């Protein structure tokens, strides 16, 4: 089994940690070795939350600059910020809905144009998959299910050594019953989007 290195980046409150937990549970279901680490940053204030998951026979959870095989971003600017983790064969999956940082919201900073973000990512990586994960999550019943939409997209690419059914089962195991139906709908919407 080859080693696959995945970085998940989000803004605090977007569900990055739950997405990591789901992928870890799916790996356990399939007997795939997985190592995980998280950087919470200023998550409680809308800051970046980064998770690193390494699937396969790896010694470390550290994903150094230029080592990520897959980057999943819950917010486009966070994909741009994490681009240093990527290499020329990396696949990037990103939500297209911006969530401007506080400084941009109060006029003290600027949010880059989407075309600028897109061209930087596409120029550095092998493939860019853009999904309106926020819109699909809203259609599924809860905008907070962006994480599940992106997990569905990731599962559908076949880039991880996990089946979509294992990820779906892990969602059922890790999601609170009140959110399960919406999360499963969001996961399927993500799969269909790819």
In short:
This protein is an alpha/beta fold. It is 43% helix and 22% strand. It has one domain: Pyruvate-ferredoxin Oxidoreductase, domain 3, CATH 3.40.920.
Account of the protein in words:
With 194 residues, the protein is α/β, with parallel strands linked by helices. It has eight helices and six strands. It has helices at 16-30, 76-81, 102-105, 114-124, 133-140, 146-157, 164-174, 177-193; strands at 4-11, 34-39, 48-55, 68-73, 86-95, 127-131. The two termini are 25 Å apart. The mean pLDDT is 92.
Layout of secondary structure:
Blueprint: E1 4-11, H1 16-30, E2 34-39, E3 48-55, E4 68-73, H2 76-81, E5 86-95, H3 102-105, H4 114-124, E6 127-131, H5 133-140, H6 146-157, H7 164-174, H8 177-193
Parallel strand pairs: 1-4, 4-5, 5-6
Antiparallel strand pairs: 1-3, 2-3
CATH class: Alpha Beta
The H-level CATH homologous superfamily, spelled out, is: Pyruvate-ferredoxin oxidoreductase, PFOR, domain III
Q: Which range does the strand content fall in?
A: 15-25%
For the largest sheet, list the strands in their spatial order.
2-3-1-4-5-6
Low-confidence stretches: none
- Indicate the structural class: alpha/beta
Shape: globular
Termini distance?
25 Å
How many separate helices?
A: 8
Query: What is the fold named in CATH at topology level?
Result: Pyruvate-ferredoxin Oxidoreductase, domain 3
Under the CATH scheme, the architecture is 3-Layer(aba) Sandwich
Mean pLDDT: 92
How many discrete structural domains?
Answer: 1
Largest sheet, if any? Answer: 6 strands, mixed
Number-wise, the strands total 6
């Amino acid at each position: 089994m080859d080693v696959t290195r995945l970085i998940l980046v989000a803004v605090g409150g977007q569900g990055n940690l739950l997405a990591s937990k789901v992928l870890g549970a799916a790996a356990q279901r399939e007997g795939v070795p997985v190592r995980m680490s998280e950087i919470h940053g200023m998550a409680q204030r809308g800051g970046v939350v980064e998770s690193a998951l390494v699937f396969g026979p790896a010694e470390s959870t550290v994903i150094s600059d230029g080592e990520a095989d897959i980057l999943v971003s819950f917010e486009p600017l966070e994909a741009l910020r994490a681009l240093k983790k990527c290499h020329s064969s990396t696949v990037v999956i990103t939500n297209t809905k911006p969530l401007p940082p506080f400084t941009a919201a109060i006029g003290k900073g600027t949010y880059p144009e989407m075309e600028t973000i897109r061209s930087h990512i596409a120029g550095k990586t092998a493939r860019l998959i853009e999904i309106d994960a926020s819109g699909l999550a809203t259609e599924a019943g809860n905008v907070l299910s962006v994480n599940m939409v992106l997990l569905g997209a990731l599962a559908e690419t076949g880039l991880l050594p996990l089946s979509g059914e294992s990820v779906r089962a892990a969602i059922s195991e890790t999601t609170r019953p009140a959110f399960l139906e919406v999360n499963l709908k969001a996961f399927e919407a993500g799969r269909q989007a790819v």
